[in-house]
Design brief:
There is one protein chain. By secondary structure, this protein is α/β, with parallel strands linked by helices. The protein is 48% helix and 18% strand. It has six helices and seven strands. It has a five-stranded parallel sheet, with helices on both faces. Strands 4-5 form a two-stranded antiparallel sheet. It is globular, with a radius of gyration of 21 Å.
């Protein structure tokens, strides 16, 4: 099934903790993101197939299901380039962080977290194309300014 084109700011949360899910969705919506919330892997997969999000925020533990095993299965179908994943976990252990990256996550956030850290991490994925374009524009401006400064001044005599 082909997926519909998505606004750049469409996010999907797959978090098994309702309070964390509600607070995270609320924070991201305040920042202007469109947020869908799934409470289980089957529902999330259906939503991904229907409308591909710009970013999936996934809990490493989905209650009765291991979120990292679910992510490994997702990666067999969808590449990281097509759907980046940010793991949110209560587990700060290096083993879980390592397993998350091996399963196909692009970033990891330990919960509870500072909302500004969440904001920056999400923006790094979702706004990366906009940030890159702005940096490229600024870089081009700097090259132009440097070229002008380095060029010898040629003044025509006025009569």
């Amino acid at each position: 099934m082909a997926h519909s084109p998505i606004p750049r700011h469409h996010l999907l949360l797959l978090l098994d903790e309702p309070v964390l899910s509600d607070l995270t969705a609320f924070r991201l919506e305040l920042l202007g993101y469109s947020v869908l919330v799934s409470s289980d892997g089957d529902d999330a997969l259906k939503r991904i197939e229907d409308q591909r999000p710009a970013l999936l925020l996934l809990n490493s533990n989905l209650g009765e299901q291991d979120g990292l095993i679910w992510l490994t299965k997702l990666r067999a179908r969808i590449s990281p380039e097509d759907l980046p994943v940010l793991i949110i976990s209560l587990d700060p252990s290096l083993d879980t962080v390592r397993r998350s990256f091996e399963a196909g996550a692009q970033d990891y956030l330990i919960s509870p977290f500072d909302p500004t850290v969440l904001e920056r991490k999400v923006a790094n994925f979702v706004d990366a194309d906009q940030i890159s374009a702005e940096e490229e524009r600024r870089s081009g401006m700097m090259v132009s300014i440097e070229a002008i400064a380095a060029a010898p001044a040629k003044l025509e005599p006025t009569s």
